[in-house]
Amino acid sequence: MNEIVEQFEVTFNQIHQHLKELNGFPKNDNFAELLQRSKLKHSVIRVHFDQLKQYAKLRNAIVHERISGDYFIATPHKDVVEHLKKIKQTLDQPPEALDFATRPVLFFKEDTAITHIIEAFDQHGISQFPIYTKERNFLGLLTNDGIVRWLSQTMVDGHARLEDITPKEVLHHEKNTNVEFLGANATVFELEERFEKSLDEDRKLKAVILTESGSPDDLPMGIVTTWDLIKVDRQEDDE
Fold first, then answer.
1. Which of 45, 118, 120, 239 has the greatest count of CB atoms below 10 A from its CB?
2. pLDDT band at 12 (very low <50, low <70, confident <90, very high)
3. Against a cut of 0.85, is the pTM above it?
């Protein structure tokens, strides 16, 4: 077989295998179908979707429309093969979730004065902070929306008492408490799967917190929101 054609087919088949894996090895393992499904879930596939779709047509022409022996109706250009190999390499070694996380993570303990945290919202331009017990157990995610909600429900005659108020008291007013945890060495694919699964289950995932072991009781190394996922697409577009 023509060497350039062989490289193209081998690489294409390896990418096809990745798509099967990303979709849980479904019975229908048609490349085009897997590509479409993967596009909805994974940024790497989204960015390369159009190219992979065209490469699939080229592959079908090579496999199904061979004229004779090593004489093919179409032969991939060397640049096409090199680009296909780059896509395959990205699937082999996907970026780490930590690359797209906000870090370092500023967090507070349950007995921190709420006035101090309110100042931190303004000073750091961050909209949410993880809260931990004195034993470093995760209590919840305190957001600026949660504080506003707490204020609106506790104000009397236009005034609210902030003295001696701690985040533990305010956490009860958080509307969305859905937070999940992943190990710091997780891939961006695993990260995206968490958000995709939450959508499938009709529950909005507020954030994914990355810790060394993936345990909620480890201190946070990074935090990812849906806004951070936009950075995944942008980074891929730049490459």
1. 45
2. very high
3. no
